[in-house]
């Protein structure tokens, strides 16, 4: 595994194996005359067959990033710039007809709210067959067979019966399984799961994550796992992008990130997480809250909550690769930094 | 739903003032509602002036003078809106009749609220058999669609200005009672009302100091929305000859006069109807605006 | 579902009972002798007495009511004072006209309302949306009898396109349907618009888009079917109003339906006919509302998340 990680080359360097490359993505929402930069220069890539975790607090722009990939941003939102390359093909400003062929077929998405993500007035069968009908040249009989096969695959008992049921007749966990079946029905290259387990019970959460992992191996697809839960990241991801206030602040493979986090925000997140592998005296929450859009500081957005903030943080740091392989957006790792170098991870302040 | 959370420390007057302030802020943002509001203010002053002029003849114009040499004349410089079948000036009749349309509309709505609001509070606050009896009676009244109940009542009472007001008011009572009952129930179940009751406050005091200020919004919204349909109902009944009787220049009654002369003089039916549209439109605009401004479900 | 229907049916009984009391009672609760009211103030004593005897007004009030109720349950509403024809014959002769007017007007309201509502919702805040919503506001604020008069003025008198009065051939039907249906169309349009906007913001619409569904299907397949649920209710209620509230329209266009029967009978002081017709209209209204309620419950079953 470690060797493989070396090969795939962490970071933003050109990598022929990346299924998706996002570069300097900027998505804004316009409220009256003011612009809220929900995603402000996000870059990452998803290697083939691997899972990229995007972690961040709510409002950090991770869901908007996901919706931007499929061009599902609606007014008053708008993709302002940057590039999203799917297997070398530019998706920003792609034709809508082309996007429709990609959605649900080559790139699929599952959402946070299984309770409301299925159309209440159509049966499970209708909604599952629909995506197959759109993207595959199957006859009605084959469509139905495929739909039942998918329901079986995601572990739904008596699929023939479920096909005729409406969403209200299913539990939240079952509905999320149906969502996964819909997303995977056309064997996509990339699955974007936007907090797929947040709304579910803990026991169901584990089942759903396990299911996604199994199916990923079976289909050989890549996954973007969007979550605020570092536990989910540790269990499922190969690489992690940590987002804060619309930007990626740290990018690394999952082992490096957990063992050797560099950005003070990542450190803070890990310190606030209970861990079994290391002795902890107490959990340390990050001070304060994410600033409201109109209160965003200039420069590093994390500075007001950062224990190491200094004058230079009023300028925006670049996302740069440092020696250990992490990409970090922080002045601490810059030559100009005159303060204490580096941070101890589990030091309790 | 409970906009009262955190308001517990305020007296009912403060609560009312705060609500009023908030409400005007919201209403001000709604341009359509403000247009409706200003139109109504202007119409109101014209109506008052028209009423006084009809009584004291300040302007020296007459809406009652018949002139058989100038019957059914179309709009001209002399008669801006033309004349009717008896040679009366339609513009002057509309002007002198404005207070009737507005007055009867307001009177019917006010009467309906006067009866419906206490019934709704009683049903909502005391519940049990009082609630059952009141609401079953309201259900019976609601079984009559639109103006049918008013029509039925007027048919027996006989057509007159007062009777049509009463009839339209009765048909609107259940709407008020229903809405007020619902809001009273919600308010009554708030924790702070329980606390006040536990402290030994009398029902009377609770209703007037705590329930009433809290249910003012739905009452006001319903009133403004109902005003539009009251004007329509009254004009409709008068148009059928069962409401305000000629020669009173009520606009619906004027339409009834004019319908017999449509082949010769279409303008007789045009102008009074247009005025009804303006009044009803203004009430609808204001009513929509008030609902948006006051409905807690739509706040934000 | 069956329990819900039974429950609602049981609730209907006291309401219908109350309706009969009200219809029976108003005539008797009013000050003055009902026989005298019917005969007219200046009628000779003998006529008044004849009416009194014929309607059984000599009996005690509760006996009169039970007779009334008994007759009503066998669809016997008495006979008309004017022409001695049974009231039920009068009603059945005119019922179909009113029913037809209501059905066609509802159809018009739904068609026009949906069209306008969907256009407005899909192009929200556009020039078309704003214009259409202003027009619907006028539609709501127009007295239907005045609209009827104006339609007659323009399309019958000035242009000669349609017949100004009557009912039966298509030429006579167009104007009354527009006059009666416009307000309903306006209500349905506004309802459809707000309902569509509500639905378009739902998660499952995003899911549909994420599946690669064409925008046309997103609107007409995924959004519309959900948005229609509240609209069905409004359309049903409109039908109830049209069925029993077309009094003014029938008067304007001289259509011989139930509404006109009431008006004519009121002027002729023919109270058995007024009572019978009002009763029938109220019962129809209650029935339609009941059916709308059941339909809504049924349609909403899948949508209601609780």
UniProtKB/TrEMBL annotation, chain A:
Chain ranges of the ABC transporter domain:
20-270
Q: Which domain of life is it from?
A: Bacteria
Q: Which NCBIfam families match?
A: oligo_HPY (TIGR01727)
Entry-linked CDD domains? ABC_NikE_OppD_transporters
Q: Name one GO molecular function term.
A: ATP binding
Record's keyword terms, sorted = ATP-binding, Cell membrane, Membrane, Nucleotide-binding, Transport
Q: Fetch the PROSITE patterns from UniProt.
A: ABC_TRANSPORTER_1, ABC_TRANSPORTER_2
Q: Which Pfam families match?
A: ABC_tran, oligo_HPY
What is the recorded name of this protein?
A: Peptide/nickel transport system ATP-binding protein
Main subcellular localisation: membrane
Q: Which InterPro entries match?
A: AAA+_ATPase, ABC_Ni/Peptide_Import, ABC_transporter-like_ATP-bd, ABC_transporter-like_CS, Oligopep_ABC_C, P-loop_NTPase
Can you say where in the cell this protein is located? Cell membrane
- Name any Gene Ontology BP term: peptide transport
Protein family = Belongs to the ABC transporter superfamily.
Q: How does it sit in the membrane?
A: Peripheral membrane protein
**GO annotations of cellular component type:** plasma membrane
TrEMBL record, chain B:
Q: How does this protein sit in the membrane?
A: Multi-pass membrane protein
Q: What is its main location?
A: membrane
One Pfam family, short name please? BPD_transp_1
Residues annotated as domain ABC transmembrane type-1: 98-287
Q: Which residues cross the membrane?
A: 32-52, 100-125, 137-156, 219-241, 261-287
Q: Where does the UniProt annotation locate this protein?
A: Cell membrane
Q: Where does it sit, as one GO cellular component term?
A: plasma membrane
UniProt key word Ribonucleoprotein: no
Q: Which UniProt keywords apply?
A: Cell membrane, Ion transport, Membrane, Nickel, Nickel transport, Transmembrane, Transmembrane helix, Transport
> Which Gene3D superfamilies would you find in this protein's record?
MetI-like
SUPFAM superfamilies reported in the protein's UniProt record:
MetI-like
User: Which InterPro entries does this UniProt record tie to the protein?
Assistant: BP-dependent_transpt_permease (IPR050366), MetI-like (IPR000515), MetI-like_sf (IPR035906), OppC_N (IPR025966)
What is one Gene Ontology biological process annotated in the Swiss-Prot or TrEMBL record? nickel cation transport
**Origin, by domain of life?**
Bacteria
Give the record's family classification.
Belongs to the binding-protein-dependent transport system permease family.
What protein is this chain from? Peptide/nickel transport system permease protein
Give the species this sequence originates from: Aliicoccus persicus
From TrEMBL, chain C:
> Boundaries of each ABC transmembrane type-1 domain copy?
95-292
Question: What's the superkingdom here?
Answer: Bacteria
Membrane topology annotation: Multi-pass membrane protein
Q: Which Pfam families does this UniProt record tie to the protein?
A: BPD_transp_1, BPD_transp_1_N
Say yes or no: keyword ATP-binding present.
Answer: no
* A GO biological process held by the record: nickel cation transport
Q: Would you tell me the Gene Ontology cellular component terms?
A: plasma membrane
Looking up SUPFAM superfamilies in the UniProt record yields: MetI-like
Molecular function in Gene Ontology? dipeptide transmembrane transporter activity
Instruction: Provide the alphabetized UniProt keywords.
Output: Cell membrane, Ion transport, Membrane, Nickel, Nickel transport, Transmembrane, Transmembrane helix, Transport
Q: Which family does it belong to?
A: Belongs to the binding-protein-dependent transport system permease family.
Protein name per UniProt: ABC transporter permease
Tell me the organism.
Answer: Aliicoccus persicus
């Amino acid at each position: 595994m470690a060797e493989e990680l070396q090969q795939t080359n962490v970071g933003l360097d050109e990598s022929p194996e990346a299924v998706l490359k996002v570069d300097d993505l900027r998505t804004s929402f316009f409220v009256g005359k003011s612009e809220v930069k929900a995603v402000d220069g996000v870059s990452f890539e998803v290697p083939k067959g691997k899972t990229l975790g995007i972690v961040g607090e709510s409002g950090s722009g991770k869901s908007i990033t996901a919706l931007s990939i499929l061009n599902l941003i609606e007014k008053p939102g708008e993709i302002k710039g940057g590039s999203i390359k799917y297997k070398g093909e530019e998706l920003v400003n792609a034709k809508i007809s082309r996007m429709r062929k990609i959605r649900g077929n080559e790139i699929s998405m599952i959402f946070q709210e299984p309770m409301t993500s299925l159309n209440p007035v159509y049966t499970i069968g209708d909604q599952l067959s629909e995506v197959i009908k759109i993207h595959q040249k199957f006859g009605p009989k084959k469509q139905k067979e495929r739909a039942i096969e998918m329901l079986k695959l995601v572990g739904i008992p008596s699929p023939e019966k479920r096909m005729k049921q409406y969403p209200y007749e299913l539990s939240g966990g079952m509905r999320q399984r149906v969502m996964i079946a819909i997303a995977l029905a056309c064997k996509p290259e990339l699955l974007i799961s936007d907090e797929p387990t947040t709304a579910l019970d803990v026991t169901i959460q584990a089942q759903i994550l396990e299911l996604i992992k199994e199916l990923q191996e079976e289909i050989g697809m890549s996954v973007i796992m969007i979550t605020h839960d570092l536990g989910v990241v540790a269990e499922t991801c190969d690489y992690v992008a940590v987002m804060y206030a619309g930007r990626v602040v740290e990018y690394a493979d999952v082992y490096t990130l957990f063992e050797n986090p560099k950005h003070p925000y990542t450190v803070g997140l890990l310190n606030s997480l209970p861990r079994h592998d290391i002795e902890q005296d107490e959990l340390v929450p990050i001070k304060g809250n994410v600033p409201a859009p109109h209160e965003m500081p200039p420069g590093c957005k994390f500075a007001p909550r950062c224990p190491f903030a200094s004058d230079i943080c009023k300028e925006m740091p670049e996302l740069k690769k440092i020696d250990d392989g992490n990409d970090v957006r922080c002045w601490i790792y810059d030559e100009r930094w005159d303060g204490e170098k580096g941070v101890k991870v589990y030091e309790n302040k | 739903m409970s906009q009262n959370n955190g308001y517990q420390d305020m007296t009912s007057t403060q609560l009312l003032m705060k609500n009023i302030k908030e409400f005007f802020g919201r209403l001000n943002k709604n341009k359509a509602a403000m247009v409706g509001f200003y139109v109504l203010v202007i119409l109101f002053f014209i109506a008052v002036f028209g009423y006084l002029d009809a009584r004291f003849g300040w302007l020296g114009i007459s809406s009652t003078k018949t002139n058989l040499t100038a019957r059914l004349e179309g709009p001209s410089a002399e008669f801006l809106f033309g004349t009717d079948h008896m040679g009366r000036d339609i513009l002057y009749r509309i002007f002198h009749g404005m207070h009737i349309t507005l007055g009867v509309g307001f009177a019917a709505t006010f009467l309906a609220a006067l009866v419906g609001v206490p019934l709704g509070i009683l049903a909502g606050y005391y519940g049990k058999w009082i609630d059952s009896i009141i609401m079953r009676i309201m259900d019976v009244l609601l079984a009559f669609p639109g103006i049918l109940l008013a029509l039925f009542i007027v048919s027996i009472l006989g057509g007159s200005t007062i009777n049509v007001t009463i009839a339209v008011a009765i048909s609107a009572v259940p709407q008020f009672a229903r809405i007020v009952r619902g809001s009273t129930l919600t308010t009554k179940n708030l924790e702070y009302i329980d606390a006040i009751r536990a402290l030994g406050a009398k029902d009377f005091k609770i209703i007037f100091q705590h329930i009433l200020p809290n249910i003012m919004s739905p009452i006001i919204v319903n009133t403004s929305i109902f005003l539009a349909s009251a004007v329509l109902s009254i004009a409709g009944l008068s148009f059928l000859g069962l409401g305000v009787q000629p020669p009173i220049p009520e606009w619906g009654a004027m339409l009834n006069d004019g319908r017999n002369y449509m082949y010769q003089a279409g303008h007789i039916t045009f102008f009074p109807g247009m005025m009804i549209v303006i009044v009803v439109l203004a009430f609808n605009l204001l009513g929509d605006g008030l609902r948006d401004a006051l409905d807690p479900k739509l706040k934000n | 579902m069956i329990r819900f229907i039974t429950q609602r049916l049981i609730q209907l009984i006291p309401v219908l009972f109350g309706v009969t009391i009200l219809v029976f009672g108003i005539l008797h609760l009013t000050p003055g002798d009902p026989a005298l009211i019917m005969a007219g103030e200046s009628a000779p004593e003998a006529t008044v007495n004849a009416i009194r005897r014929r309607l059984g007004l000599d009996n005690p009030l509760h006996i009169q009511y039970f007779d009334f109720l008994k007759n009503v349950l066998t669809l016997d509403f008495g006979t008309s004072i004017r022409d001695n024809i049974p009231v039920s014959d009068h009603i059945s002769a005119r019922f179909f006209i009113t029913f037809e007017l209501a059905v066609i007007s509802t159809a018009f309201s739904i068609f026009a309302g949906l069209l306008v509502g969907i256009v407005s919702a899909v192009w929200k805040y556009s020039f078309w949306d704003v214009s259409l919503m202003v027009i619907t506001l006028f539609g709501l604020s127009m007295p239907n009898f005045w609209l009827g008069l104006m339609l007659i003025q323009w399309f019958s008198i000035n242009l000669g396109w349609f017949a100004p009065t009557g009912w039966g051939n298509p030429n006579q039907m167009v104007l009354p349907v527009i006059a009666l249906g416009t307000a309903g169309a306006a209500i349905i349009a506004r309802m459809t618009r707000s309902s569509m906007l509500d639905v378009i913001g739902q998660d499952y619409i995003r899911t549909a888009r994420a599946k690669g569904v064409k925008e046309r299907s997103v609107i007409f397949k995924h959004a519309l079917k959900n948005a229609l649920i509240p609209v069905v209710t409004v359309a049903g209620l409109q039908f109830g109003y049209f069925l029993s509230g077309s009094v003014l329209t029938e008067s304007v266009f001289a259509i011989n339906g139930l509404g006109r029967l009431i008006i004519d009978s009121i002027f002729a002081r023919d109270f058995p006919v007024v009572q019978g017709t009002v009763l029938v209209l109220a019962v129809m209204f209650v029935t339609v509302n009941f059916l709308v309620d059941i339909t809504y419950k049924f349609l909403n079953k899948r949508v209601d998340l609780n």
